[in-house]
Structures are given as structure tokens and as C-alpha cells.
Amino acid sequence: MGQLIKNVLRRHGLLLAFLVFLAVVAVNAEAFLTPGNILDVLRQVSITGMMALGVTFVVLTGRLDLSVGSLLTLLTVIVVDQHNISGPFPAIVMTLLAGAAIGAFNGLLIGFVGLNALIVTLAMLSFLQGLVLFYSGGSNVNVQNAQDTWFAVFGRGSFLGLPVPVLLFLSGAIVAGLVLAFTTFGRRIYAVGGNETASIFSGINAPWTVFWTYVVSGLTTAIAAVIMGSRVMGAQNTIGQGYELTVLAGVILGGTSLLGGSGSIWRTVIGISMLGFIQNGLLLLGYPYYVQWLVTWAVIIIAVWIDLGAKRGRIFA
Amino acid sequence: MQDVILKVDGITKTFPGVKALDNVSFDIRPGEVHALVGENGAGKSTLMKVLAGLHQPDGGEIVYLGEPTNVSNPLDARQKGILLIHQELSLSPELSVAENIYLGAWPTNRFGVLRKKELRRNASAALEALGCGFGPDVRVGTLSVAMQQMVEIARAEAFRANVVIFDEPTASLTDAEKEQLFHTIRGLQARGVGIVYISHKMDEIFDITDRITVLRDGQVQGTIDTADTDLNNVTRMMIGRTLDAYFVKAKAEFGAEVLRVENLTKTGLFREVSFSVREGEVLGLYGLVGAGRSEVVETVFGVRRADAGKVYWKGGDIGLPTPRQSIDMGMALVPESRKEQGLVLMMGGRENTSLPHLSMFSELSVMNKSKELAAFEKYRSALSIKTTGPDQAVSQLSGGNQQKFVLAKWLCADPKLIILDEPTRGIDVGSKSAIHELIAHLAEQGLAVVVISSEMPEVLGVSHRVLAMSEGAVVAEFGGAQMTEENLIDAVSHHRGPMVAE
Q1: Shortest alpha-carbon distance between residue B202 and chain A (Å)
Q2: Which long-range CB contacts under 8 A does B472-476 form with residues at least 24 apart?
Q3: Where is the signal peptide (chain A) (predicted)?
């Protein structure tokens, strides 16, 4: 019996802690479990979640993408600014292309040149931060004629009673999940993350595979930027600051291993949603917003710890 | 001195789904070399991990120096005088010999500062007692594998070990180094140390051990005096049957040339290597570790790049192919290290089998799981692979079963040429002979086969023709009656040609 409790705690400890947290917040803040609040959280989660889908591809190969935070800023600025210049459709196309191109550049340096992913994407984070200010000249941009454009539908619209951003996130998750689980691309990603040498010995083009995961990461961040721009109907120069860590925390919290080769999209959906509810709960309990950062730290440490524990368990079993 | 140093009494250890050790008892006497043999998965490594404190037994006890003892971790074991010398050495290459000998148990003063003089003095004494030809200050990374092993053995002196457990100690040693090791083991023996010797190599076991304990499926089959038994008897105890035809050679009926390599050169690794292999032919590639054999075949397959040379496939010049091109033409490489190069350990047999041929197992990039399952089932029964199902992680399988999945992943696409790099290294006798039979069978079906092996009986037993490699060059070729151990040894040891061009 004691052994059983121990096992349950080890395997589902995080989930149990989360449920306890939900209960505590629900008792202390009446608004927490109302449909309106839940939809709010999901709307918030849809942006980080969309980014986390692409980052999951990258993490599954055993690599990182820390550039997505400032990429989100840059692309949000681009989509809003281009919307004013050339209209919503060209703006969205341009944003998607820019996201894919920057992802491809990361992928080139990491996959083909073989540079360290942490350094390359951290440097990209800094570079894009600078590029945003170059592009915007330091001022914030806003969507003009906000009443007359269909651009607002991505962030503010709803369909069958559900917010469009949430629907976008869920359909993105389904597509990404199917790609990972059922296609040769997905299989290659798991193989490269599980054992890169063995995958090369099996004729898999590992650099090419890694390259494409970064393109995917750039693309999902671009979709997130469209949702963000549409929701805010504008873009500040700091709008995506810190998102890279929230996204990574969500991926890890879901249980996708930083060592690569194990994890999945549904895990990321759960992880990033848990994080959304934790952050919202803390706000409703009256903690200042920056407490979220302390909690994000704790979540990352605990989740990585559990991952390591699981790996050790496997080694000595 | 007692007549038994360490007694294992009814030890049981269960892992989820497996009883790895089932009521195992045996004892070690001072000054004896005691062999522990069994097929992979028989429980040898679990037993030795229990002795070294890496696993805690579920039942039974360890009686050490007459007292029931609990070994809580490897350092505890070492301090009690039980030392495990792993197949993969556990040394820090950046640290000195002395620091490695006392790794984790460095003498320090009360402020935690290392007492270097004491460390050096003690380490020197241990090295001298063993007759090592190097001092305590050398960085371990600069030593050869054999010398590094001596550093581990020096721990036996340093910690005054009563029991030393060797796990496959000769896996990567040359014959001369092996003799040196045996000399050292006899030295320890003379001091009254009890030695447990784990190996797959039967000739070594009969050479150096006094008693043999045979394990099968987690149970002790018996302990016998080495002098009173023979290979056949021990093998029968290990696998429950005798192995009569140890090697089977394919019928020598050759077809057209499949692969020809001309003047393949890679600076620092190998130079001007040429050979060819025909349909139905088994070509052996013999040489000591470091002779460049693996590097040559990895280059032919495409995972390494050559500086110069040509590869012809069925007579056509294909330049230097990528692994993808090689695989698509019908080339297969069973690499030297199945865990690092051969398998994705966290994947199951199904996903590992289809990995090199994803396009064959998919339509429009969507994986066809039923095709994968069909291939998995076909090879599970054809190669009698023991696994609980298509998605059981191959990391949980024994070495022999893992190797069979490496074979399955190549055979499922009907290759024309299969290169096997040390196909039977570190696997049990039963799987070994199954693989030898498979090699003959494949050749008789018309495949061209290249076998690399450091084991002379194996390479002579399965091949029609043998190339001897030394220091990156092919130094001799033997066929027919010239294929003898004497000729091979002569070729690789007396060759004093120019070193590989820098």
C-alpha cells in the first residue's frame, strides 16, 4: 500500500500538486472556475501554446530554441505594421515567411554548421531584440482603422462559442500531434533525439531533420504573432519578452525530455495549460504579476528534476 | 585466514517483470579465480552489481569475512574491500593516475583540502606493487586502454581489496596486454585476494580460473572445478544443450562482383585500401583494434568521408556515397557498437526495424504501422528474438536480442551486401552461433557478406577469404588452405610497413 502511494506520487505528483492548487484557488477566488475566466486563460494559453508546439519539435531532437520570445515581438510588430501598409492578407503571409526564414537561419547554424543550440538561439534572441528597435524606430505600433478590418478575428473572434485563438491552438496541436506520431518526419525527429549517431547510421539526414524543426518553430511563433497582434490590435517593443521561458517551462512541465527522443504534443498542451492556470490562479489570489516569474522558475527546476529522476531510474533498473 | 572470504547466500533480486536473480548462492575463497559464466540475461551483471552495492537484493544475504554485510553503494563496497572493475572503465580522463586511484575517497585535511603528498605516495606504492610502467602524475586520458585498466586494478592494492570482480576485462585488449593482465591477476591471487572473473571467452576461463559457477535464467546451475570439466560441459550447463557445429561455412558458390573498393585513403586512419566481394561470398576482415577496419567500412557505407579512393557498386563507379544512397542501393552496415550506433534504445523493436527504410514503410510520408508490425513479427520469429512486444524499449533487452534487432532492421529491406562489424562481440554463446548460422545462410542466398572480427576462430570459421589489416593498411590476403591462425598472426604482428601517411 505504501509502495503504491509512493509510485502514484512519483508518477503523478505534479498533476496531484496541480489539482490541490486548483482546489485552493477555487475556494479562495470565486471567479476562478467561471466559464469566462477559463476561456480567458485558454485565450492567453493559445499564444504560448502555439509557440510551444514548434518548440516541442525542437526539444524532441534534444535541442533548444530560446529565440522565440523576441521572435514573437518582432513578428507581432511586423504583422501590425504591414497590416497598416499593405492590408491583412499580405501582412500575414509576410509574417509567416519571416518566421520560417529566421527559424531556417537558426536551423542552418545548428543543424548543418553544428553550432550549439543554446548559444545560437540565445544570440538570436538578442539580435532580434535589436532588430525590433531598428524596425520600429523605438515606437509602438497600432492597427489603424481597427473597426474596418477582419484582422481582429484571430485574436478576438469566436466561433461556435469558442474563441478563435483557442480553436487555432487546438487545431495546430492536432496537426502537430499527427505529424509527430504518424509521419516519417515525426519518426526522424524521435530517432535523432533518441540517438543521433544511430539515426545517421540508419541513413537519416540528421542535420536536415534538425533544420526543419527550427523552421516549424519559426512558423508556429509566426502564427502566435498573428494571434497576438490581432488580440492587442497593436504591438509594443517588449510584447514577447520572457515568452521563451514560459514556453520552455510548459514543454518541460508536460514531461517532454530535454535530452530528446521522448515526449509528445499532448504533453505540451497539458503542460502549457497547467502553467496558464497556475499563473491566472496566482493573480486571482492577489499576488503581484511578477510572482509568476518565481513560480516559473520553480516549475522548471521541479520538472527537470523529475525528468532526470526518471532517466536515472531507467538506467539502474 | 578463513577458507571463504565472501559468501553469497540465497540472493534474490526482482525487477518489474523479471526475476533477475533467483536464490543464488556461491562463495569466493582467498587466492582463487572464480569464473562466473552464463548467457546474456542469465543474471551475471545483476549479481555483480549487488556485490558492488549498485543494487540492493530483495532477499538472501552477503556474508563477508564471516559477517553478514550490507553493501550500500560502490564506494562503501570499495572501502570494505570489494572492488568491481567494469567492462567500461570508470575513470576521469582529465585527472591524474593518483587522483583516479582514490577517486571519491581522496585524503584531505580538516579543511577539505587535498593532501597531495600522501595521495602521490600511496598511489606510487600501489602502482609499484603491480609493476606498472607509469607514475602517479600521468593524466589518465593519455594512457592506453590496458594501462587505464591497470589504474583500476591499482585500486585493489590501494584499498587492500579482498575481493576483485573483473567484468569482461579483455574485451579491448591485445594478446600481449591480455598476458600482462593475467600476470597481474596471478599476482593478486598470490596475495590471497579472491577474484571473480566474468567473461564470454571460454579459452580465457579455462586458462586462468580455478572454479566455474554457471548461471542460467537467474539461477545457479552449479559450481565446478575448472580442472574437472571441459568446454562442452560448461556450454551445456549454460544453454541447456551442446553446440556441435560451432562454425558453419557457406557453400563456396560465387556470383558477380557486388562491391569493389579501390585505394581508399583517409589521412591518419587508413591508406590505399582495396578489396572486392562477390555474391555469395563471405569476406573476413581481421586485425587488432585500431587497425582501421571499422573506419574503412564506415567510409564505404558513407558515415565517414575519405580523402581519396573509389567505390564501385556492381561494376559502376558510385564515387563516395552518403549512407542514404548506400542503403537505397542495397548496402547494410551492422555497426561495431550496437548501443551507440545500431539502435535507438528508447524505441521498440518495431520502430528500430523500420528506421533505415522509412519510405518503404510509409505512403505519402505517413507511416504504415501494420507494415511495420508485419516486419517486426516476421523477424521476431525468424531470428527468435525474445521481447514482450513491438514497443518494448530495446534498452530492456539482452545484448544478443538487441543485436538481432540490428540485423532485423537491415534484413527487412533485402540488402545485396551486408557488412557486419564485430557481430558477436559481448553476446552469449547461443546468440553467437545463431548469428554464425545466419551469416552462412545469407551468403547461400546470394548476398555478399563482409565480416569484421577480432576473434580469429570466428573470422576463419565463417569466411571464404580473409584480409589482414594492420596500421591502416591491408597487409595480406588469405584463402583456402592458407587461412590459418599462424598466418593471420604472422601477417598482423610482423608487418612493419610505413605508418599511415600523416
Answers
A1: 28
A2: B472/B269, B472/B270, B472/B271, B472/B273, B472/B291, B472/B292, B472/B500, B473/B270, B473/B271, B473/B272, B473/B273, B473/B292, B473/B497, B473/B500, B474/B273, B474/B274, B474/B275
A3: none
> Does the structure show a pLDDT above 60 at B243?
no
* CATH number of the domain bearing residue B13: 3.40.50.300
C-alpha cell at B487: 598466418
Interface of A with B (CB under 8 A): 182-188, 190-191, 194-195, 197-205, 261-262, 314, 316-317
Number of structural domains in chain B:
3
Mind listing the pLDDT tens digit for each residue in A212-229? Answer: 999 999 999 999 999 999
Chain A residue with CA closest to B366: the answer is: A183
Residue B338 lies in a domain: no
What does the DSSP 8-state code read for residue B501?
P
Mind telling me how many Å the CA of A184 is from chain B's nearest CA?
A: 5
pLDDT digit string, tens, across residues B12-52: 988 765 678 899 999 999 999 999 988 766 788 888 889 98
Pick the last residue of a domain from B201, B219, B239: B239
Q: B455-469 pLDDT, tens per residue?
A: 788 888 899 999 999
Q: Which candidate, A275, A273, A172, A271, places its Cα nearest to that of A216? A: A172
Interchain proximity B54–A316, CB inside 8 Å: yes
Asked whether residue B265 is domain-assigned, the answer is yes
How far, in Å, are A236, B8, B72, B139, B477 from residue B82 at the CA level?
A: 66, 13, 12, 26, 47
Host domain of residue B442: 249-330+415-496
Q: Tell me, yes or no, whether B321 and B423 share the same domain.
A: yes
More confident residue, A63 or B72: A63
Partner-chain residue, chosen from A183, A190, A202, that has the shortest CB–CB distance to B356: A202
User: What whole-number distance in Å separates Cα of residue B106 and Cα of residue B100?
Assistant: 9
| Beta strand residue intervals within B45-182, DSSP E | 59-64, 67-69, 82-85, 163-167
Cβ separation A190–B347 shorter than 8 A: yes
Q: Does one domain contain both B420 and B291?
A: yes
Chain A CB contacts of B355 below 8 Å: 187, 191, 198-199, 202, 204
Distance separating alpha carbons of residues B275 and B310, to the nearest angstrom: 11
Residue B439, domain member (yes or no):
yes
Cross-chain residue pair A317–B16, CB shorter than 8 Å: yes
Q: Is the same domain home to B172 and B311? A: no
What would the pLDDT profile of A138-154 be if each residue is shown by its tens digit?
A: 888 898 887 888 999 99
Q: Is there a contact between B366 and A183 if contact means CB atoms under 8 Å apart?
A: yes
Q: Are residues B371 and B425 in the same domain?
A: no
Does B370 contact A at CB distance below 8 Å? Answer: no
Q: A261–B343: do the CB atoms touch at under 8 Å? A: no
> Given an 8 Å threshold on Cβ–Cβ distance, is B365 in contact with A191?
no
CA distance B65 to B5: 5
Residues from chain A contacting residue B418 (CB–CB below 8 Å): none
Which of A186, A202, A261 is opposite residue B355, by nearest beta carbon? A202
Alpha-carbon distance of B40 to B49, in angstroms, equals 15
CB pairs under 8 A between A and B: 78
Shared-domain flag, residues B10 and B112:
yes
* CB-CB neighbors (< 8 A) of B410 in chain A: none
Pair B77, B172 in one domain: yes
Residue B502 in any domain: the answer is: no
Nearest CA in chain A to B329: A203
Q: Which residues of chain A have pLDDT under 50?
A: 313-317
Residues B491, B349: one domain?
no
Tell me whether B356 touches chain A (CB under 8 Å). Answer: yes
B186 and B322 within one domain: no
Q: Which of B355, B365, B397 to mutate to test the interface with A (most CBs of A within 10 A)?
A: B355
